[in-house]
Input
Amino acid sequence: MEAQRGLVGPAPRQILTDSVYDAVKALIMDDAVPPGAKLNMDQLARELAVSQTPIREALARLESERLVVKEPLRGYTSAPLLSRAEFEDLYEFRLHLEPWAAGRAAERTCDGSRAELEAELATCAVVPDGAEYEDYKPLTTHDARFHDLVMRLSGNATAREALASTHCHLHIFRLFYSSGAGSTVHGEHAAVVAAIASGDANTARAAMHAHLEAARDRLRPHVS
Output
């Protein structure tokens, strides 16, 4: 029994760290802490009724996702929203990379990869209502997993890592979310899944390209 204790579940400290991370992330995603605002560790610790240790660990994780910025002598601040130039650069990068990856995934398709894509699509079959991060968090996590899965199925680990390093799903959903957009995203993902499952690389590339262009066009009005 002693040897199996590690199989029971996460340790209490890890659960606490994850919950604090989720709470601080929600403050940023919901604009409760506006872009550029200072994140006071003492205040956060009091509000969340925890010590500074899980706050510090949460902020380090959020820094790795580029949601907070650590500045000398100032501490942590909420990262700015994507600028117009950063937004356009991000989508230019994605439009080069992800349609190619979808084509490669189609060329390599098999029963296992098709099942993985269908299973991931099913994780967000019900599009969440509400514009708070807690409401649409299931969609952001699905979006990240879905695009990462396509990259993995392409078979190129370097390309997969390059996309992951942008944390684009967080920064895009931080700009704007509505339940109507969520329904559209799910439908576009379904079209990409069907195209990859067909095994036709050109169809898969076109489906991913159409999805990314549509997403870019939906978000452009919300970028300064």
In short: DSSP finds ten helices and two strands in the chain.
